[in-house]
């Protein structure tokens, strides 16, 4: 290709969003009113989850939001967890409730997600939020899909009438991002195909994509031969692969074979530094939106 691909900088966009939110929170403080609050509940001591939870709290602190982490032991009963969620549903100080997944096996994740008030569902996983998303009503969008759509908008990648192919059908990324992009509105209005492992020839679909979103969870799965020249490629994957040259013994790669796919694209997200940083930024944005809805606070 003659045109150099544009690398989509998720770190910068996420930083911009945090800056925009900080201005709004500072404005609220100037009015001497309470600021948005987010509580994150974690059950058990999964190291990856712990790191992610701490990152959320740090991001809240940076923009001036109220933040609280509830660390519960792994043997916490389902009943105790549901009761704690109820207490935060009723709390006037917290607008967003996030329960870090995965949960220990003895706890029913569906029950937990449904227990969170739909008004405080800043993760966007509640059936009410998902239902509103599908029928095109304003709602809390799941953070990673929302981050993908925000990157597409901010980089002015045309979606209307374009063919978007989503590889992966999870409730966390694949299904919601597909539904968001097919809505009849600005920044969407795309023709969307969802692909998954049952496809006899996945490349028959991916090679027709104007925008290819890879969310399958397999390292370097999308190869150059699966991508159309000039496609915009959004890589949601975060995979550890062995790397003897690294001090940690591994490196992080996406679902796309970045090195070989790069030259075929018009836009591409790196891993790390692409979609990943957007997830927490959109969580903060959802928390702010929850606050506005709950308090009916009007922005100047």
For the biggest β-sheet, the strand order reads 1-11-8-7-5-6
The biggest sheet, with number of strands, parallel, antiparallel or mixed sense and barrel status, is: 6 strands, parallel
| Distance between the amino and carboxyl termini | 46 Å
Counting copies of identical and different chains, the oligomeric state is single chain
Helix content: 25-40%
The CATH homologous superfamily of the largest domain corresponds to NAD(P)-binding Rossmann-like Domain
Q: Name the helix and strand elements from N-terminus to C-terminus, one letter apiece.
A: EHEHEHEHHHEHEHEEEEHEH
Using the CA coordinates, give the radius of gyration. 20 Å
The helix/strand class is alpha/beta
Give the total of beta strands: 11
**CATH C-level class of the largest domain:** Alpha Beta
Which architecture name of the largest domain does CATH use? 3-Layer(aba) Sandwich
Count of separate DSSP helical elements: 10
Enumerate the spans where pLDDT stays under 50 for 5 or more consecutive residues. none
């Amino acid at each position: 290709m003659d045109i150099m691909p544009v690398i989509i900088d998720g770190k910068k966009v996420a930083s911009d969003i945090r800056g925009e939110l900080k201005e709004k929170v500072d404005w609220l403080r100037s009015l001497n009113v309470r600021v948005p609050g987010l509580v994150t509940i974690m059950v058990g001591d999964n190291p990856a989850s712990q790191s992610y939870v701490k990152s959320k709290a740090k991001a809240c602190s940076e923009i001036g939001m109220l933040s609280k982490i509830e660390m519960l032991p792994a043997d916490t009963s389902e009943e105790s967890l549901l009761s704690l969620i109820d207490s935060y549903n009723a709390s006037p100080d917290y607008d967003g409730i996030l329960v870090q997944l995965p949960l220990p096996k003895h706890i029913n994740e569906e029950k937990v997600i449904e227990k969170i008030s739909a008004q405080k569902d800043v993760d966007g996983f509640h059936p009410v939020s998902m239902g509103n998303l599908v029928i095109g009503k304003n709602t809390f969008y799941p953070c990673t899909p929302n981050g993908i759509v925000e990157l597409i908008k901010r980089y002015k990648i045309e979606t209307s009438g374009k063919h978007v192919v989503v590889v992966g059908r999870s409730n966390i990324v694949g299904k919601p991002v597909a539904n968001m992009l097919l809505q009849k509105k600005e920044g969407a209005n795309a023709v969307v195909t969802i692909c998954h492992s049952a496809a006899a020839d996945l490349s028959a679909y991916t090679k027709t994509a104007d925008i290819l979103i890879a969310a399958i969870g397999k390292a370097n799965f999308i190869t150059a031969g699966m991508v159309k020249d000039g496609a915009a490629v959004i890589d949601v994957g975060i995979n550890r692969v062995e790397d003897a040259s690294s001090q940690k013994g591994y490196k992080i790669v996406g679902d796309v074979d970045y090195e070989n796919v790069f030259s075929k694209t018009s836009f591409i997200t790196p891993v790390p530094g692409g979609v990943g940083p957007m997830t927490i930024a959109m969580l903060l944005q959802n928390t702010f939106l929850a606050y506005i809805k709950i308090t009916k606070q009007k922005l100047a």
